From TrEMBL:
GO biological process: phenylpropanoid biosynthetic process
Role, per record: Dirigent proteins impart stereoselectivity on the phenoxy radical-coupling reaction, yielding optically active lignans from two molecules of coniferyl alcohol in the biosynthesis of lignans, flavonolignans, and alkaloids and thus plays a central role in plant secondary metabolism.
Subcellular compartments: Secreted, Extracellular space, Apoplast
Protein family (similarity comment): Belongs to the plant dirigent protein family.
Name of the protein in its database record: Dirigent protein
Record text on subunit structure and interactions: Homodimer.
Keyword terms: Apoplast, Secreted
Higher taxonomy: Eukaryota, Viridiplantae, Streptophyta, Embryophyta, Tracheophyta
Stretches that traverse the bilayer: none
Natural source organism: Oryza sativa subsp. japonica (Rice)
Keyword Signal annotated: no
InterPro entries documented for this protein: Allene_oxi_cyc_Dirigent, Dirigent
Length: 196
């Protein structure tokens, strides 16, 4: 999945606000901002479709260099994944290029795991635009709850087959290797995973 994240800490489209400004810490260490970044399917936000929002926070986590811990939910507002989310976390370094972890998801993107590669494609004194390339596996759940089995209440999850945004690739091209369906009963007591 290929998207663009629009971060603006100033100007008319401001979508990131400082909530903690340490008065005397070196390099602004501990400074915290809340964000509601716009996520689009094109570089120019005014000519692109809004796909969703990046809602979360950033914290200046280095005493000596530009480095921000970033955690946000990519909340999809349109298209196939409308109402679903991805949880994304990692460090935004001074180079403004790198990878974040996709640590979870909800809705159609339940149980997502993967990476979000990012690269700054426009930078100014008031805003940045990052190109995002998402690679993730996810297993949407059909249902979750409890059932009664011979007088005992048991937890269950019904999981559809795994899906992925992109096929993983290596230096020889596409691997096309499917990921094995998770077996939750191996990891969580009283939980049964079934495929639909």
């Amino acid at each position: 999945m290929h998207l663009f994240l629009h971060q603006a800490w100033g100007g008319p489209t401001k979508n990131q606000y400082a909530v903690v400004i340490p008065p005397d810490s070196p390099n602004g260490f501990g400074g915290t901002a809340a964000n509601d970044w716009v996520i689009t399917d094109g570089l120019d936000a005014s000519r692109s479709n809004t796909v969703g929002r990046g809602q979360g926070f950033t914290i200046n986590n280095s005493l000596s260099k530009f480095s921000f811990y970033t955690s946000f939910n990519l909340v999809f507002e349109n298209g196939r994944f409308n109402g679903s989310t991805l949880q994304i976390t990692g460090v935004l370094p001074q180079s403004a290029n790198g990878e974040w972890s996709i640590t979870g998801g909800t809705g159609e993107l339940a149980l997502a795991r993967g990476i979000a590669k990012f690269k700054a494609v426009q930078m100014s004194s008031l805003s940045n635009v990052y190109e995002l390339t998402l690679h993730a596996y996810y297993s949407p759940m059909d249902s979750c709850g409890q059932y009664d089995f011979n007088g005992k209440s048991q937890n269950y999850m019904s999981v559809r087959r795994n899906r992925k945004f992109n096929t993983l690739s290596n230096n020889r091209g596409s691997t096309g290797i499917p990921i094995e369906q998770p077996q939750f009963d191996k990891y969580m007591s009283n939980c049964v995973s079934s495929t639909g």
